[in-house]
Amino acid sequence: MFRPAPLYFRCGSGSRLEDVDGNSYIDYTLAWGPLILGHAHPAIVEAIRKQVSRGMTYGAQHEFEIAVAERIQSLVPCAELSAFTSSGSEALQLAFRLARAFTGRNLILKFEGHYHGWMDSELISYHPSREQVGDESRPNVVLHSKGQSPSVAADLVVASWNSVDRLRETLERNPGKIAGIVMEPVLCNSGCILPAPGYLQAVRELATQHGAVLILDEVITGFRIGLGGAQQHFGVTPDLATFGKAVAGGPALSVVAGKKEIVGLIAGKGVNFGGTFNGNPISLCAADATLAELSHNGGEALKRANRLGEALRAGIQERAQAKGVPLIACGFGAAFAIHFTGRKQLTCYRDTLDDDGARLQRFLEACVRRGVYSLPDGRFYTSTAHTEADIEQSLAVIDQALEA
Ligand SMILES: Cc1ncc(COP(=O)(O)O)c(C=O)c1O
Hints:
alpha/beta, 2 domains, seven-stranded mixed sheet, binds pyridoxal-5'-phosphate
């Protein structure tokens, strides 16, 4: 019944992972997001099996690129053109470059607590400490890693998220200088905080007013919150959007999609873009299979994954409340996170600085020992492979973990 924390996994199937000792776990990490159809989905396995025998990579264009670009175009509101990259970090690099080339400006405006990849130019003010953050009206630009080039800080401006006034002030302080405004439309990387009603619409208007390219980083929300991403869910169309993780259901693929006149700058119009593995047919055939599966029946499988996730989220919240445990479980169905906090509501990264991280770790340890595996920051992802039985079993385990 009680099992040690897993160190090594041997295989995955559907919603389950098995470790080298044969213990089974209900998997809510989904490899940090990609496995939207669960582990080893037959449609993806079959697509890859077929493609492998036709050659693993061509270093040239092929039919799956067209097929996947067309699928994305039909599903995602902003996607007039798509460019394929291999990781989310890389997709954001390209989006920043496109925004700078399109506007002829240099600064990228990002928000505190948002994650856009591990590279020097992106890894700014991700999880600054209370001592590092600075004044809320003018947050410090904080490097996140040892070895990061300090010069990148000059290329970014940081604002507090979910406040229209703070964004307006930041834009007004930098007239004609902001090339792009980038954000996670749901703040998944700081505990799945939702945008305030109307906030994304106001950001859209401000970006247009100030001539800045609006980039929605949908690496997590894409093909997860809904078929058309957060932009469709919240009704806000960006100029550019980045996708990754779920788009290929497991293999490495990411995408920059957006307006023709911006993405088209890579087509002989002066924006350099390369990458040996970008657009490789293994990743693209997996994306074609994943998007085909997700598109069946008007996206019913994804809606169900979101319903099951919402049942789990609400179930955790209710159980904590009944036991008098101060906890917020926030986010949307297929991606939510737990915060042990005395706060009633979370609206931005700074609110999470009051979270009881040690208590979260004890809780997650108690869950994993009982066979429920989630991300170390308290995030849970659901897939189309999860079942009602998984949710029931998980809630029974979580009940015990909350007691513990
Ligand atoms: C919102 C967001 N953007 C970008 C990235 C970077 O993607 P990758 O890890 O594929 O480089 C991540 C990764 O977790 C992410 O969550």
